[in-house]
Structures are given as C-alpha cells and as structure tokens.
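tool=predict chain=A
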Amino acid sequence: MDEYFWNERVEYLVKSRKTLWNNDYIQFLVEKVWNINNPVNFIDFGCGMGFMGLLLLPVLPRGSTYTGIDKGKVLLDEAAKTYKDSPYDVNFIEADLFEYQPEKIYDIAISHTVLQHIPNSIRILEKMRDCVIPGGKVICIEANRIAGKTGLYFHGIDFDSLNNLGIYQKLFINDALRKGGGDGNGIKIPAYMQEIGLKDIGVRTNDCVNFINSKGDEEKYKLEYDSFISAGWGEVNKDKTSITDTLKQRGLTSEEAEHLYDCEMKLHTYVNENVRSACIIQVSYQIISFGTV
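tool=predict ok
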C-alpha cells in the first residue's frame, strides 16, 4: 500500500487548484516580471498532477518544455492522463525530491506549495539551484499558514471569535518542531534563496481573492464553493475525543484543544448548512519568490 499522503488527496488537489490563480496575473508574471521572451525548459519540483505546467505552458513562448518530478505514483498517473492529448512537450519522473539527481540542466526550476510541507527545505532549494543554467531562474510559490487564517472571513457568523490565530500559530510551530521543519511559513523562502547564493531576488504575492458569494454568478459560486469544501470545511460529523487527543499530541493543552475543536465545528456547520447562501472571502496569500543563478 502506498503511504504517500498526497496520493490520497487527488480530489482536493484538483478542486483547490481551480481557484488559486487569476490567469491574467500568470501572464503578467511571465511577460513583465520574469521577462520570459524565448522558449524555456523548466522543471517542477513536487509537480503532483502537473498543475504548474497547465498554468504556465499556455502563456510561455511556444516551444517551451515541462518536466515534472514527484514521488506520488498516483499523482503522476493522473498527470499522464491529463497531458495525454495536449500539444505540449512534457516529461514526468517518479522520484523522491531528496534523492533525485537531475540528469540535465534547465532554464527554470519551480516549485508550488512544496517547500512549506517538508523539513530541511533548503536542501531542495539547493537542488533546484544546481539544476539551472547560469542566468536561469529558481521560482518558489509558497503559502503562509497563519496568513491564510487571517485572509479568511465567514459572513453572517461571529467569525473573529472563532478564528483562533494564537492557538493556530502554537499548533503550526509545534508541528514544525516535531517534524524538524515544514512549518508552513513560505515567507522565509527569499531569505533562504539569499543564503544559497541566488541573485536579483524578487518577491510578489498571488493577487487571487475568492469571493464565495451565493448571490453572484451561479457557476462561479459552485466552482469556488466546491473548491472550499474540498479542504474539509463541509465535514461536521467528527469524533471530538479523537480529534482533541490528536491536537494535544501536537502540543495544545486540553482547554485549547477543546476550544479549537468547538470553534472549528461551528465553522464547518456554517459551511454545511449554508450551501445555497454562503458568503465567504478567501485570500490566497501565496508568496512568489524568485532569484537568478
């Protein structure tokens, strides 16, 4: 049995990525920020189902190629299906990022919401640097978990009292300490890029904000609502004892664990009971860091 976590999250990955970006902003990054005017060969570290290829290839100069690397066989099988009839030159490699040794060099190495999940992420950043030509780019797009909590609002409920930023922060820090890294803090990446010797480091943020508004366009609302609940927000029938025990194992006190559980269940109930009337604002808060080799 394959125990790789993300192999079990295909539905979530598919749905959540449909609402992460504005396509015009991707084009702006390619043309105005990264100044990519000629075909490029780029490699995607932790590619999953090849999402970044689908996002970038349509706006990159014709003739660009895409290589994705991931250790999730299920994800790569899905990627192969997705790209089967595409007009693009793509290649997928099944390998652990820490063990992978690139056999060629590329113009660009990119990662999308990968480094925030793994310990010793600077090692992967060094691998990305080492497989890029002199003058090429390393691009990392990472979220910040606490910023993600601040960029969320549920209308029609006392959301401020239910969004426990201090407890979340304690939880995320404890997770990082237990795992030796992977703290979900993507804002650190530019500093790491500087540490490993990249030049001309720049930082942007994703401009995408989802207004999940039941009174707006029906098709848009369904897409964004489905994406939102794919992360588990629609679940309400959860075992309180099991979940609070897990939270305590992650470093919370009994009081903090029970309080966080109760607050989150109120939010889950709101999402579940307001399928046709929800009003939620969700800011992407992805940090886009890039540097030159």
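The chain has a mean pLDDT of 90. Residues 26 and 272 are 33 Å apart (CA to CA).
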